[in-house]
Each structure stands twice: as structure tokens, then as C-alpha cells.
């Protein structure tokens, strides 16, 4: 148990949690990462698997995480420990909290570099550094921006500083306010860009690319990427949502808030795709442009459209804000853990975390310049941070959490936290016991090459296996029958 005695702070407004969780979910993952990953993994098939993962895995995991946070009222480590103790289960489950906290920290270490790109492009927009550049120049500008460690380090350090100042101020003052105007602004900017795309000539091709669901073209690598991205984009298994959930007032509906966040997040990602790909296709660029895709494509659109500089500035302001409302959520777990367990102030915790973060993120930043040769198995430190968290830590953490909620905890725990009508509760339970874990396992098994699954052809088999495992699980588990009965 922790030393925390006072009741935990809670979100101010009725919308406080939804705003903050949406702020955490919507970020560079939607606008920077989703488009370039879709481009790298061939378009529509990736989008389809991503959407399925959001629904079948993301939503159940998010409900579970918010429930764990609110029940345990603490950082991921403390909350999970309290919840398992309450059910008389092993405190070792709190390792899940440790992994989540570590994942949040690792993500932030590369996220600040990307947010730094956004800040520096805002600066370029303001100072006219991009005007008159063509397709090739844009690529060169992106490379040049990365090549100088002092330049790149300046921007990522700035992001680190701003993040820590906001987190140091606390949950309500810092986090809630900034999100309430940023989200609508982002949506308006994306609509303007989509509107431009409709007239730019590349829209039809972009639509086709994103929504022609040809599953045959997706590799197992692509599926694992889609699963990992579903976790990343919803801020799952990384401490953020669980810790935000720990500030959720008792009466709020977890299911409803989860749906609002998931829908908003998915819409923003799809809108970002529809904003970026028309520009790519209209300018004859390759969708496989990698992490620079956003920065090499949208500035071209801003140059071509009326009032482009104004819109460009606004866009990068919004993108930077979206990045900040996510970055603050990544350290919230660590900071709240330090405050609750080490008896230090929030501000001290934020600065302490910030210093360590700065060191690790500087290493990540160097991947783009002086450390370009420091690779392991072909990946830079920056890539490793992304790869380990998205592909492994988050899916595994999510798996652990659904299994904990589905099989280990007393059934009252989630019945009380979720407060759902019996048939909805049964659906949630079915999802966390069978659909989500199997979804995660199948994709892992496939990606590890243990067994090759041809999804297009064999999905009836998968369904059959799911039904079989459910039956075995239910027969072996009298608890569910009791749950459903009572
Ligand atoms: N969901 C955020 C985004 O899409 C990233 C994030 C990951 C935030 C993990 C918090 C925790 O940009």
C-alpha cells in the first residue's frame, strides 16, 4: 500500500476525463504515425486490420484499464497492486504496472524528438523557411533539419521542458484546459486540408489507397504493426489511460467515455490520412516515405493553397499542442508514482523525471545525426524504442490486463466499476476473456513465424477456434456462469 492518505484529485468538469483521455489518445500517432505506417504497409489492408484491432482489442483493453485505475486509485503499479490484493491474488501482477510505466517513459523518449520536428516546422513556417520549395527540396529540408544535433536537440529539449512544466502544474490546471480548445481546432484544420485535397487531384487515389480493403496484400509484419499501432494510438498499456482513469469520478460511465475517446481518435487518424495522401499522390510522391512523410508532404499543400502560410502555422501549432497533450500523459504515471510513494512534491517529481528523460531522448535524437551508425540489428536507438514498445510491450501488457480482468479478479470488481447492464457486461467479459487475448496471441504467433495464418482464406477456421476455446474456457470456468447468473 502506498503512503497516500488524502482522497485522490479528480477531474474538474464533467468532460474532464474525456477531454484529457482524448488529448492523450489524439496526437502524433494519429497525424504523423498512422499515415506513414499505412503508406509503408500498403494501404487499405493495414487500415482494416487497424480498425478491427481498435474494436476487438483496443476498446475492451481501454475499459479494463480505466476500471483498474479507478478501482485502485493510483499509479499503474499501486492501482494494480491494490486491485489484485482486494481479490486476494498475487501482488506480482503489479509487474504489469511497472512494464506500463516503463513503456510510457520509453515512448516519450522518442516522442519528444518527433514533437520537436513539429515545433521546428512551425518555426520554419513562421520564418518563411519552407516557401518556394518543391518536392525534392522538402525531402532535403527534412534531412537537413535532422542532421544538426544542436538544432534537433534544441527542439526536443524544448518539448521536454514544456511537458515537464505542464505536468509539474498538475492534473487540472495543466492538462484539462489545454485540450478543450485544441481538439476542435485540430479537426477544423484537418477539414480544411481535406477540402484542399478534394480539389488537388489526388483525392480519388487517396481514398482508394486507404479504403480498398485487400487483405491479401498484408504481411504478418504489417498485422503486428497494426495491432501495435492500435495500442499506441489509444495510449494503452503505457500507464497513461490507467493513471488518468485513477482521477475519474465514481459515477462516470467507463463504457461511454471509452467509446467517445476511441471514436474521436479513429476519426482524427482517418482524417489525417485523407488530408495527407491526396498531397502525396497529386505530387507524384511515394506513400512509402517513412517517418518524414507528414513533414515532406503537407508543406507542399500549404504553399499551393490560398492563405497557405496562415493555415500552415495554425496546423503546426495544433500538431504541437496535440503532441503535448499526449506527451504529458506519458509521464503522468511515473510522476504520480513518485509523488505517492517517495513523498516528494509534484514539481520535484516532474523535474527529476524530466532530467532522466532528457538524457534518454538525447540518445534517441542522435539517431538522426552523429549516431546514424549506432545500430543494432539494423535499427537505431530511436527505432528500437518505438519497436519494443509498440510491437511488444504494449500488446503484452494489454494481454496481461485483459487476462487479469477476465480470469483473475473477483467478478464484482469489474461489475461494480463498469456498472453495465448484464448483457453488456457479458459481452465485455467475452471480449476480455477470449476475443482480445486471442487476437493478440494470433498476431504474435503469426509474426513470430510459429505458424503462418492466411487471414483472407482461413478466417472461418479462426472463428471456429474462437468458439472452441470459448466453450472450453467456459466449461472450465464456473465463475462466468456465476457472473452471468448473478
Ligand atoms: N496516443 C498517442 C498518440 O497517438 C501516443 C501515446 C502513447 C500517448 C502512449 C500516451 C501513451 O500520439
Q: How much helix is in the residues?
A: over 70%
Number of helices: 20
Biggest sheet character? none
- Compute the separation of the termini in Å: 31 Å
Q: Find the structural class using helix and strand composition.
A: mainly alpha
Q: How many β-strand runs? A: 0
Task: Characterise this structure.
The protein has 486 residues and is mainly α. Helices cover 78% and strands 0% of the residues. It is built from 20 helices and no strands. The protein has helices spanning 16-25, 28-40, 44-72, 76-86, 95-127, 135-147, 149-169, 171-200, 203-211, 220-233, 240-245, 254-282, 293-304, 308-342, 346-366, 381-408, 411-418, 422-447, 455-476, 478-485. Helix 1 packs across helix 8 (171-200). The two termini are 31 Å apart. The site of phenylalanine (PHE) has 16 residues, from helix 1, helix 2, helix 5, helix 10 and helix 14. Phenylalanine binds at residues 24-25, 27-30, 104, 107, 232-233, 235, 238, 240, 326, 329-330.
Key words describing this protein structure:
486 residues, disordered N terminus, mainly alpha, single chain, binds phenylalanine
Record the SSE blueprint:
Blueprint lengths: L15 H10 L2 H13 L3 H29 L3 H11 L8 H33 L7 H13 L1 H21 L1 H30 L2 H9 L8 H14 L6 H6 L8 H29 L10 H12 L3 H35 L3 H21 L14 H28 L2 H8 L3 H26 L7 H22 L1 H8 L1
Phenylalanine binds next to helix 1, helix 2, helix 5, helix 10 and helix 14.
What is the gist of this entry?
The chain has 486 residues and is mostly helical. The protein has helices at 16-25, 28-40, 44-72, 76-86, 95-127, 135-147, 149-169, 171-200, 203-211, 220-233, 240-245, 254-282, 293-304, 308-342, 346-366, 381-408, 411-418, 422-447, 455-476, 478-485.
